[in-house]
């Protein structure tokens, strides 16, 4: 059902965390008893508020009584206000300024692009360390204002905001460690490099679903732009179409984790080939697509890489090939081993005093073999008894008495013997 519109933060808080809906429970992390102390509070009893408040999809449009927010939310550290109807940054500021210990704030899917965030309002966010603005259509001007007023911001989420470009902030944000900016339309690498300029301490950059094109940057420049980058996610970067783009990732001096699923460049390879070729090209990574790269897997991948490219023309062989040949030497091609079951064998057929070497199919039945032998031994199939002798078996011949049994089930091998005898009347 649709939530009613025009509801205040405090109204929703009182409804959701009333004693009837959220009974007081003892024990760590189970809830916090906060007395209803403000004069004129509508709460006649008490609220049992946890330190993590989830008030998403509640139709909130405004803050409500600020004194009551301050009284009930003094201990709150995380607040989820996603998918509400907050469109005025002043109302958000009224809420946040009265939650003094707030570290995590989720404002996703609120129509906040309808108002301008002034610096004095943004100042109320000063203690926030993790801020989520997904699908808020927050402008870069709004983001810049936030960055200037949040000195301790460590994680910023800007997904689904229809960004096609990045606007550089006049001030670098030295504190930011994680930027989640997926599902936008940042195609040109010149836009991505601006993120490196704005966030020099960035540890994790999540760029999935951005249709990123080729990485047009020198190795030295990449190292200067992202000196602390440890993890990058480039899932579904539709424009990455050559191995040189992958090789450029080696320019990030601290890179250890890479995610590269859904890349057009890799679609023509098998799953095994993709992983091994990527591991061999990225010698410093310890985790690929979420899976740890063990030492044994790295060596196998690097050896696979050498054999993969050894027959390529010299002009098509990547530089990494020569580095690995220096490491392992020139390898011999792997022997091709056919593991398919044998389809036919050569056996000796003994009948009376005659011995004849024959090739027989193993997919046929005993009855079919009898038909095949009928012209050789001059006996009808109904008058024929067959015995199989495994050359290594210690127990003597085994009668092949079941007409529908397949020959391969006997384990017949080259050099074994089959004895044919007439049925005694």
Automatic annotation (TrEMBL):
Highest taxon above the source species: Eukaryota
Keywords: Coiled coil, Cytoplasm, Cytoskeleton, Leucine-rich repeat, Phosphoprotein, Repeat
Ubiquitin-like domain sequence ranges: 349-421
InterPro entries, per the entry: Leu-rich_rpt (IPR001611), LRR_dom_sf (IPR032675), TBCEL_Ubl (IPR047991), Ubiquitin-like_dom (IPR000626), Ubiquitin-like_domsf (IPR029071)
Compartments where located: Cytoplasm, Cytoskeleton
GO cellular component: cytoskeleton
Residue intervals passing through the bilayer: none
Main location: cytoplasm
PANTHER family: LEUCINE-RICH REPEAT-CONTAINING PROTEIN 51
Function noted in UniProt: Acts as a regulator of tubulin stability.
Listed name of the protein: Leucine-rich repeat-containing protein 51
Source organism per UniProt: Circaetus pectoralis (black-chested snake-eagle)
Taxonomic path: Eukaryota, Metazoa, Chordata, Craniata, Vertebrata
């Amino acid at each position: 059902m649709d939530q009613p519109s025009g509801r205040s933060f405090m109204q929703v808080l009182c409804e959701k965390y009333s004693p009837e809906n959220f009974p007081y429970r003892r024990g760590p992390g189970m809830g916090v008893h906060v007395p209803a102390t403000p004069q004129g509070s509508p709460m006649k009893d008490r609220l049992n508020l946890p330190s993590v408040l989830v008030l998403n999809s509640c139709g909130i449009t405004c803050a409500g009584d600020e004194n009551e927010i301050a009284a009930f939310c003094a201990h709150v550290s995380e607040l989820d206000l996603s998918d509400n109807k907050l469109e005025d940054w002043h109302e958000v500021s009224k809420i946040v300024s009265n939650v003094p210990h707030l570290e995590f704030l989720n404002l996703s899917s609120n129509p906040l692009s309808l108002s301008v965030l002034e610096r004095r309002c943004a100042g109320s966010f000063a203690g926030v360390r993790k801020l989520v603005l997904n699908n808020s259509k927050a402008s870069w001007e709004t983001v810049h204002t936030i960055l200037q007023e949040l000195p301790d911001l460590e994680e910023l989420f800007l997904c689904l905001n229809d960004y096609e470009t990045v606007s550089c902030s006049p001030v670098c944000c030295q504190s930011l460690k994680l930027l989640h900016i997926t599902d936008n339309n940042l195609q040109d690498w010149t836009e991505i490099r601006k993120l490196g300029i704005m966030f020099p301490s960035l540890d994790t950059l999540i760029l999935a679903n951005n249709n990123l094109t080729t990485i047009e940057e020198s190795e030295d420049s990449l190292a200067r732009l992202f000196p602390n980058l440890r993890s990058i996610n480039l899932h579904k970067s539709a424009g990455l179409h050559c191995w040189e783009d992958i090789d450029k990732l080696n320019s990030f001096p601290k890179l250890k984790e890479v995610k590269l699923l859904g890349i057009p460049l890799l679609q023509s390879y098998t799953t095994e080939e993709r992983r091994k070729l990527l591991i061999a090209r990225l010698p410093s990574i310890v985790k690929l697509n979420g899976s740890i790269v063990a030492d044994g897997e790295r060596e196998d991948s690097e050896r696979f890489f050498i054999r993969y490219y050894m027959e390529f023309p010299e002009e098509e062989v990547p530089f990494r090939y020569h580095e690995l040949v220096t490491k392992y030497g020139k390898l011999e091609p792997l022997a091709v081993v056919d593991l398919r079951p044998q389809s036919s064998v050569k056996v000796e057929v003994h009948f009376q005093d005659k011995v004849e070497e024959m090739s027989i199919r193993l997919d046929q039945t005993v009855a079919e073999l009898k038909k095949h032998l009928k012209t050789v031994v001059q006996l009808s199939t109904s008058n024929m008894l067959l015995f199989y002798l495994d050359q290594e078996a210690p127990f003597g011949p085994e009668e092949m008495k079941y007409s529908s049994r397949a020959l391969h089930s006997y384990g017949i091998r080259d050099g074994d013997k089959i004895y044919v005898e007439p049925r005694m009347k």
